[in-house]
Amino acid sequence: MRTGTSLKIAAVTLSLLCAGALAQQGTGTGTPPPAGGQRGAPPAQGQGAPPQREGGREGRGGRGMGMDFEGGMKLAGRGYKALKDSPFDASSRARDLEALQGIEQGLIASKAQAANLPMSPKAKEKFGTDAAAYQTALRKDLNAAVMAALMTEQAVLEGKSADAKAAFAKLGKDQESGHSLFQKDEG
Ligand code: HEM
After folding, report:
1. Residue closest by Cα to atom 7 of ligand 1
2. 3-23+60-182 belongs to which homologous superfamily?
3. Tens of pLDDT, residues 84-127
C-alpha cells in the first residue's frame, strides 16, 4: 500500500514536473543550460551513436524540455550540491524545496533524452548489443532516483527531518550506482 501511494505521488508529480521544467528554464530557480558547447553536443551520426530523436538536442515537441541528457544532469547536480550540508529542518525548508525541485526537473529532463545516450564502456560490457535491456535499466535507475528525490521532498513537506535525510542518502546511492554504470567517464 505504501509503495502504491508512493507511485501515485510520483505519477502526479512527474506530470507537473514536465510543465515546471519548461518554466524553470526561463527565470525561476534554474540557470538555462548553455546554448552550445562541445560536451553537451549530441554524438555525431555515423560514429556508432544512436540516431537522434526528432528535434535532436533542443528536444522540439516538448519531451526534451530544451535540454540534452547532460544539461538535465547539470541542473540536478546544482540542486544536489545545494543540499549536501542541509540540516533538513525548518530553517532550511525553503532552500531544500527549491533544490529538490531542480533535482527532480533535471532528472526528468535527462530521462526524456535517455534514448539518445550512448552506452558507456561498462554498459557495453553488461548489455552488449541489447539496446532494449540497456534502455530499460537506464530508465528504471533514473526513475528510482526521481522517486528518492520525491520522497525527500515529501519528508521535507511533512517536517520529517530524519526521513528527509534518509531519502536524500538513498538519492546519493542512486546517483553513485547510476554514474558507475552509465557515465562514460566513470572508472
Ligand atoms: C541525485 C541524482 C543525480 C545527480 C545529482 C546527478 C548529477 C550529474 C552531474 C552533475 C553530471 C555531470 C554533468 C556534466 O557533465 O557537467 C552527471 C552526469 C551523468 N549522469 Fe547523473 N546525476 C544523478 C543521477 C543519475 C542517475 C540515476 C543516472 C543513470 C541512471 C545518471 C546518469 C548520468 C550520466 C550517463 C551522465 C553523463 C552525461 C554526459 O556526459 O552526457 N545520473 N550527473
Report:
1. 77
2. Cytochrome c/b562 (1.20.120.10)
3. 999 999 999 999 999 999 999 999 999 999 999 999 999 999 99
